[in-house]
């Protein structure tokens, strides 16, 4: 059974900038740069029939390109930190696309996503890191100039069962359209 999720890819120049934030936290397993992404909807381990249905349903999404800004470092897990992340500033286009994918997957029978959508790029998974060392890391690297890019597609990734962080395989890609293309098509 494939393990699937939808995501926005992080372009190489942005991934390179994020990679410079690595290091300095004991117990951190830093994610390989080529595996940086922004998860939209985790589907989990699904059978082949659901995988085909999901890939097909996603092909009907017609949305414009999304302007994204990564603007802060954070951690997930509170007193027991489990990940260091680069937060993506939520914007209406991003939130609407994620909500559309959530609705589509639920119509296909997927259980609701239990976690609130918090767009981010995972930089490291933590095991045994204490909150003080993570706080020191965030304090030392917390400010960086915003990183901006345009997402012109989203993808359906598969991953092997592992501790996370890849490798990921693009199973399908779905273009996002320039606003002028969508506007022009609607005006016909």
Summarize the structure.
With 188 residues, the protein is an alpha+beta fold. Helices cover 29% and strands 34% of the residues.
Structural overview:
This protein is an alpha+beta fold. The chain is 29% helix and 34% strand. It contains five helices and nine strands. The strands form two sheets. It has a five-stranded antiparallel β-sheet. The longest helix is centred in the middle third of the chain and has 16 residues, at 92-107. The radius of gyration is 17 Å and the shape is globular. The chain starts with a strand and ends with a helix.
What amount of the residues lies in strands?
25-35%
How many angstroms does the end-to-end distance come to? 43 Å
What string, H for helix and E for strand, traces the elements in order?
Answer: EHEEHEEHEHEEEH
Query: How are the strands of the biggest sheet laid out side by side?
Result: 2-6-5-4-7
Describe the main β-sheet briefly: 5 strands, antiparallel
Percent in helix:
25-40%
Low-confidence stretches: none
Number of beta strands:
9
Mean pLDDT equals 91
What is the radius of gyration? Answer: 17 Å
Number of helices: 5
The geometry reads as globular
**Secondary-structure class:** alpha+beta
